[in-house]
Predict the 3D structure of the following.
Amino acid sequence: MQMSGQPIFILPEGTLRQTGKDAQSRNIAAARAVADNVRSTLGPKGMDKMLVDSIGDITITNDGYTILDEMEIDHPAAKMIVEVAKTQNEEVGDGTTTSVILAGELLKKAGDLLEQNIHPTVITRGYRLAKTKALEVLPSIGTNITINDRKILEQIAMTAMTGKSSEAAKEPLAKIAVDAVTSVAVTSNGKVLINKDDIKIEKKQGGSMDDTELISGIVIDKEIVHSNMPKKIKDAKIALLDCALEVKSTETDAQIRITSPDQLQAFVEQESKMLKNMVEKVVASGCNVLFCQKGIDDLAQHYLAKKGIAAARRAKKSDIEKLAKATGAKIVSNVDELTKDDLGHAGLVEEVKISGEDMIFVRECKDPRSVSILIRGGTDHVVDEAKRAMEDAVFGIISAIEVGKFVAGGGACEIELSKKLREYSQTVGGREQLAINAFADAVEIVPRTLAESTGIDPIEILMNLRSEHEKGHAGYGIDVFQSKISDMNKLGVVEPLKIKQQAIKSATEAAEMILRIDDVITARSGGGGGMPGGMPPGMGGMGDME
């Protein structure tokens, strides 16, 4: 801005600013770069990424959210795409790569429309119409499913695991995932409710993935505190305390003056007596296993051991809550109030050494409302990736049961949705029609990426797929192992409808937000000096944000 030949600076020195198409094109390029980073991980033939952090720790994965979470992304628009993956991961637990590459493709198609001088608000309005129509159409593409459709639930779990390192053992792992979900499901007012926090997924290096097991109870990464305590207790009666078995220090400032050995002896004996009284209360309740959220004094441990009670201390609050659900025990805040009615029950509690570390297994709980899956594998990296695959499978099953519908995988759902959106665009006038068609093209990025991973011509395979869908074969998708198109329902390649719904919601909203930005002002710390090209600081249209 300039008045009478004198420039006026409204921004502090050293600020970078980009406006108009320059800002939009840079934001789109940054978002697309993020999407391209994870695109090659999509599908059964997706590749893995090795991420090495600043201290040398290695992560090997093809999970979209894990990759983006580990990458140190600095660009503000790129961070918005990472938020898409985060939302997808929190809401559904799977489909993070799908949502990210869809957001990237929506922005790429929007960039083409911007080049044709179509205003960003027109594009965002068209995208919003397309999103609304897509969410309206998707349930009609889906097929109904209930918690009793065990075979389909296992297929959903196996589809989530395919392409990950746990694929070799996907069938037994899928059965474990379905068993875990069905055992914690609760029916209320005719609706099935599942809390994913009720399924604890614990990992431990050692053995192989075939050693992975479902425990009808809880695994706790703790040890029994005293060597004289029993390590294996059948017909366990379990007490849960969230208070310490220790003599508390006074809350007020106080001093005790001891002037003779007799007084010291009396003081020590009194402390010992208080601890003994606490243990007597525990013994009186009839419990033989004690889990304490806080500390247990060494002397209290000795008394508990003498009474044959196994105890673990400093258990996590979340573990105590899961134990309560699994065993039916009540969490008690004051040892004086512990009674027989507060105890939970388990068929077996045992301490087991796995990979050199002691773990406590609470097994054979009757009708547990919380269960554990113990993941095993040869190396840390294998166990980590197997845990991520199991989380995807478990959350996928939960999503399918919650919404009550599933769709064909292998790009079949996206091709069918694209077809319906193109039909819908014919009913919409104006330039928004172009944006809806662009949205329909963008949705096809999923089958196109799957086709590219097979090594065959993606254009030819997409044309054949469209042809089959025009004939009414809505379940046809890409069989990446045979490099051809097939009926995905017959192959058992199915996914929860919720994955597709959430991916479209979050990807569209992120794309709309990025498209509406036409001015990026970046504050630079340390200021000083003019900008490149002899332009004074604070003026628009210069600087490099990336």
The radius of gyration is 30 Å.
